[in-house]
Amino acid sequence: MKAVTVNIDESNSLKLEEVQKPSIGPDEVLIAVRSAALNHRDLYMTKQWQPLKGYGTFIAGGDASGVIVEIGSSVSGWMLGDEVIINPLLVDSEDGPNFPPFLGGPTDGTFAEFVKAPAAFILKKPKYLTFEEAAALPLALSTAWGNTTVQGKLQSGETLLLQGIGGGVATFILQIAVKMGVKVIVTSSSDEKIEKAIELGASYGINYKKDNVAKKGMEMTNGKGVDAVIDSSGKDSIESSIQSLSEKGRLLIFGSSTGSFNKEILNTVNFHETGMVSQADLKNALSFYAEHEIHPVLSPKIYSLEEYKEAYEELEKGQQFGKIVIKIS
Fold first, then answer.
1. Cβ 250 vs Cβ 271: under 8 Å
2. Could you say which of 161, 220, 227, 283 is the most buried, measured as most Cβ atoms within 10 Å of its Cβ?
3. Is it true that domain 2-137+296-327 has CATH number 3.90.180.10?
4. Statement: 142-273 belongs to CATH 3.40.50.720
5. Using one digit for the tens of pLDDT, what is the confidence trace for 278-324?
């Protein structure tokens, strides 16, 4: 089968090649991949990411939607032809002494014509979504649900400052928070992205290249500060995030795309470092998403597997609004 592979121990090692079609175990299913989606995690795999040093070559990609074409002997509850998505985190916690099994590193991933996965970590594709839309869900929706609900505990009527709108997780957070009745203030260096966020339900946008985020945030809340900040930027935004909080506000961080920072600065605030949620919580997130018939925001260009380099280049530039998707079959 065709697959995009990456060698974690080498730089610039992405390649499209013919590899062996997976053989499944008794607890697994084989899925014919229809669409896959990129995450920033996929970029880390191309840059000799230190936590996976020594794992060598594997198939790239964590997110996918597809159709079950083979079922292991111990699997029940699934049928051939079922349309599914896959939770790329193949355990119920990211914590532990060893790096967890994760599709697209260190476990073979989804940028391929077929992928195998434990039946315990697949979910039914919502019928109202296309395969391209469904492929965008797993990682970003899981992370967004953790930030808004499981760890973020956002409540209707609260005000959220969402630092850096445009990426997949951020757009999911915005969609979920709006449906929860939360007032969302977004930040970006792009007026166009802010306009798109307002179309999705954001109450206000701050261009951090033009305005002081903390000052504007205080103005929007009549000097009270926001109830919560969700920040994935890191070094460039952490100070304004802290300064924007109300007295009892909480800060949630799920990444640091602009670089690391001294975490001692967090000692003065109610701080939570967030990540993906359990399989049960992801099912709840998917139910919420389907109940409200929310459609994920996709970047306009849908790539083919042969165009994988262009897809990675778009993600690297960071100018997209929504998820970048590869259509495979």
1. yes
2. 161
3. yes
4. yes
5. 999 999 999 999 999 999 999 999 999 999 999 999 999 988 999 99
**Separation between Cα atoms, residue 203 and residue 302, nearest integer Å:** 29
User: pLDDT tens, 237-258?
Assistant: 899 999 999 999 999 998 766 6
Q: Where, residue-wise, is CATH 3.40.50.720 in the chain?
A: 142-273
pLDDT band, very low/low/confident/very high, at 267 (cuts 50, 70, 90): confident
Put the strands of the sheet holding 15-18 in their side by side order: 15-18, 2-7, 57-59
d(CA 38, CA 325): 6
Residues 61/16, Cβ–Cβ less than 8 Å: no
Average pLDDT over residues 114-118: 98
The token duo for 233 is 């930027």
- Terminal CA-CA length for the chain: 12
pLDDT band, very low/low/confident/very high, at 233 (cuts 50, 70, 90): confident
Which 8-state DSSP code applies to residue 13? -
- Under a CB-based contact definition with an 8 Å cutoff, are residues 274 and 152 in contact? yes
For residues 191 and 198, what is the distance between their CA atoms, to the nearest angstrom?
11
